Amino acid sequence: MDQVHRNIIISNHCFLLTEVNWSALVPRLIKNGVFSKNSMAQYDNHDSYDCKVNILFDMPGLGPEAFDKFILSLRESSQIRVINKLLGIREPSPPPRAHTVPIYPENISRPVPIDLRTEKLRINVIPSENFMDDFGQMLNPYTMRSRSRGAVLIINNKTFAVDRPRKGAQIDQENLEELFRQMGGYNVTIKENCTSQQMQNDIMNFAKSNVLKTVDVMFLIIMSHGSAYVNESQVKCVDEEFVRTSWIESQFLGDACPNMQNKPKIIVYQICRGSDLDNGVRKVETDGLGIDIPTRKHSDMLICHSTSQGNKQITPAVLDENVIPTRKHSDMLICHSTSQGYKAHRDTELGSWYIQYLCETFMQYAHTHHIETMLHLVDDHLSILQSDNVDKTMQTPNFYNMGFRLCFLNPGIYEENKQLCRYED
């Protein structure tokens, strides 16, 4: 397979894993000679996640006609939408969503399928068929099988003493509440319109809650106005006072929150992080189509630090073999709706861009993908949105990993007496 076709397969792994009808495709792959019966026999269950990953991993190493035969097999199994995606053939666009415009012209293939909806998002979680932490990943996924799966604290500041109300924030809250309800096993607590003291008390009580002893995962979601503070961000409370994000995160470090040691802790901020606007930059001209498409200023960057903020590197000591240490800064995933110093967008009728697509992505892909992959998909969605105001602003979400491993949420199922059970059973 030539390099162009290899790149198409590799860059569309996530899409192919979830959107292809593999039961219909596999017989066609054998019929058309992409794989022989003997080679296909090495894959135990064609509907399993492992099998799909292995087929996609092996396909780029096949012969020069493999890609054309793969497309033929898709066509014969009536998977035209998948073919269009791989070949860059653009499907007809839905009507644009209120207050948002897609930035890609009609004759340009967009980077991901996206529903520029005109109505409120309807939550419909796809349940898992099996436990995704069960296939021996080298990166040691978190175990996510308890019936009491997780604890969630949602803080939503909507009205303020001086600042403008956050119209559309109630929709975000309802979407999140319904998302966790349908995923099953989550204890959700909602706090609205908190003063700075109330917010700090609620967060400290949550971090010390006995509920955290029995759950597999913890979510803290904070939605409010916000601003920059030196090298970090801060959350505005309804009394116009602020709580710094560094203080919030410190409440869940290993020594401050022992009930969540070695378990995943996800903190999500839907706040502005400054007053700057990302008006986009023009794409550098190439020898391809001569169309002027804006792209975000803050994009395609991966920043790697050797240690956590505020810590220094030291020479490691010899550890006591009878003591198993654990790090203070570990098992945390910090998610921001926008880049440091920049504003975040909120549709007054449909909710914030970030929370909308976070909910949509989790409900569609949590049954097969781990959280960080889903956050990349959220960014793919946001990368083609541009506000319809005069500034034509864009938005780049961020997340950073503090010793956070693979985390599959396994929606809709739990384990009891070593048996897979469903929440509706």
Automatic annotation (TrEMBL):
Residues 330-411 form the Caspase family p10 domain. The active site is at 225, 272. Residues 148-276 form the Caspase family p20 domain. GO terms for biological process: apoptotic process; proteolysis. Pfam families: Peptidase_C14 (PF00656). Signal peptide: none annotated. GO terms for molecular function: cysteine-type endopeptidase activity. InterPro entries: Caspase-like_dom_sf (IPR029030), DEATH-like_dom_sf (IPR011029), Pept_C14 (IPR002398), Pept_C14_caspase (IPR011600), Pept_C14_p10 (IPR002138), Pept_C14_p20 (IPR001309), Pept_C14A (IPR015917). Keywords: Apoptosis, Hydrolase, Protease, Thiol protease, Zymogen. It comes from the Eukaryota. Belongs to the peptidase C14A family. This is Caspase domain. It comes from Popillia japonica.
